[in-house]
Design a protein that fits this description.
Elements (H helix, E strand, L loop, with lengths): L13 H5 L10 H14 L8 H18 L4 H26 L4 H26 L32
Helix pairs in contact: 2-4, 3-4, 4-5
Amino acid sequence: MNEATPPTVSDPSATGKIAPHLSGAVGDASLRRLFVHQLLETMWRPSEMEGKNIDDKLMASIAALDAVKPRDELESMLGVQMIATHQAALDCLRLALYDPASRDRNMLHASQFLKIYIQQLQALDRRHGTGGQQMSVGTVNVEPGAQAIVGNIAHASPAR
């Protein structure tokens, strides 16, 4: 198995070029650079991965963060966490494919990361006001001769 390398970018100005992508959501330039650096730190990179490939992977992560459409610093932080969680889940799935000895453990970890990712996505939806309210009905018992309704029920207020 390849060892991961410490975070580096082949082009030192890349962080400066990438950070402006977050300028609409994050007003502070040092915070934008921090978010970019955090994305870089969460990326798994085999030891043979070099320069341009690292830059391309970082640019893909930035594109993913742009797709989150963060509106402020909190949503930017959540976006960085979502990308890191997604990458961790995929890393676990990759390891499960190539390391039969730890397949079950890696599949369990991937499943946990994916559950966290869904929770993060729901949190972002709630902040954006796009997450609909969801209700789960576990068991419905309907006695003989009775009726059950499953769905949204609305009734008019009595007229006064």
